[in-house]
Input
Amino acid sequence: MTDVRSTAAQIPVRVLGGPTTVIEYGGLRFLTDPTFDAPGDYPLGDLVLTKTAACSIDPADLGPVDVVLLSHDEHPDNLDHAGRALLGDVPVVLTTTGGAGRLGGTARGLAPWEAVELARPDGGTLTVTAAPALHGPEGCEPVTGEVVGFVLTATDLPTAYVSGDNASLPLVREIAERVGPVDTAVLFVGAVRTPFFDGALLTIDSAQAAEAAQILGARRVVPAHCDSWGHFTESRDDVVAAFAAAGLADRLQLG
Output
C-alpha cells in the first residue's frame, strides 16, 4: 500500500485554490501558477472566464517564495493581476520561453527538457527540468498557447512532477520514460472545456488523472486546478471517485 504520509513529510504540498499550490522541496518554497484575485468575470479574448471562489490565502500572508513555477502566463486562471504583482518579489520565475519574454524581470524561459540548477539554502543544489505539456488536442498551440510542466529532482530527494495545464497522456508517458517513477505528482485536472476545439479537453479529466498516476508510478498524487473556476467541468469529488474506481484511492492527497 502507498504510504502517502511519508512522502508528504518529505515533500509538503498545499493546494491554495485553482492551480495555485505551495511545494516545499530541498529547503526551497515553490509556488505554482499564482492566482489570488477575487471571484468574478475575467475576459480572455472573446471568452469570459468566471472565477467562483477565492484563494484560501491572501498573498500578503503567503510568506517568502523562492521560486514560481508558472505553466503559462496568458490565461487569467493561471496568472492573474495579483499573481503578476507577486512575481516582482520572487527571485526566480520559471515559465515558457515566450512567457519569460512577455514577463521580463526575474522570469526565465525553459524549453521542454531544458534544466536549471538552483542553490539550496543548506548547501548543494536541486534541478528543475521543464516537462512538455499540451493545453488541448494536437495542434492547439496557436489558440491555447505554449505551456510547460516541471520535474523537481535532487540526489537525496524523491522526484516531484507538476503537470501544468496538460491534456496529453502521450506526453505523460514520455515524461515517465525520461525521468522514471515519480514520487509526488501535482496534477492539474478539472476537465477544462471551452468553445475552443468543439469542447475538447484542455486539461486531463479525472479518469485520465488516475491513468497518469499509473503511467508515472506516482506514490502520491495531489490534484489541483479542479475548483474555483466555472470552466472546470469536474471537481475534486470526481477525482476521488475516479481514483477509487481505479483502485488508487490510497495515492491521493487532497488539499
Observations:
- The longest strand covers residues 125-132.
- The longest helix spans residues 169-179.
